[in-house]
Amino acid sequence: MIAIGKTDIGMIRKQNQDSYKYGTLGDGSVWAVVCDGMGGENGGEVASTLAVDSISQSIARGYRSDMTANSVRTMLLSAISAANIRVYDKAMSSELLSRMGTTVVAAVVAGGAAHIAYAGDSRVYLISGNMAEQVTKDHTMVQALVERGEITSDQAKNHPQKHVITRALGVEQGIEIDYCEVQAKEGDVLMICTDGLTNYVEESEMAEIVRRAGPDGCLEALINMANERGGTDNITIVAIFS
């Protein structure tokens, strides 16, 4: 497997409040963490960096090559829960950081399966052939309206409350974390990204660019497309090629 990552400040923001890390484990499995911070002048950057560092350390310490799928799930949920406490405690220690928090996606790809734990509106896509399928669910007010049938998916794309998230790491002492597991066969790509990308690039375009540009050029091409269409937010992408 090959993992690549890239972040960009975008065209409008003065700070990059996204953070990410990825790496390879002893048995050749790959892990990645992506966070999109929020809150105050510096709070978002502090929250996302602290969360990524904490979760990365937990994965490095806790992963074993003989782990079952349930053990990997438990490890990821525990890692995010521990990071939530660290970010929350940091926020409570300073008035300047009191409103900070971050979205989170943590993934381990091992044995042909992608194990994914997440909260917020950063997304994971599985790109297989010419199709990109969103495998996470946005934790946003607008997504809740879609699920209740009050608005359509097309209406959600331009809804004024599109960016109001309902879950974030570090905001409260506890956090509800979702988990999913998808099969990733040879040739598939798992793409983790913040909403700075998904606000501007459609799923079909993601798949086409990844297939055309490959590992060497796809991230730069995707970021350039988002920036050319507005670039109003930071853009972060990690792609894992199976």
Automatic annotation (TrEMBL):
PROSITE patterns: PPM_2. Residues 1-242 form the PPM-type phosphatase domain. GO terms for molecular function: protein serine/threonine phosphatase activity. It holds the Pfam family PP2C_2. Gene3D superfamilies: PPM-type phosphatase domain. InterPro entries: PP2C (IPR015655), PPM-type-like_dom_sf (IPR036457), PPM-type_phosphatase-like_dom (IPR001932). This is Protein phosphatase. It comes from Acetanaerobacterium elongatum. The lineage of its organism: Bacteria, Bacillati, Bacillota, Clostridia, Eubacteriales.
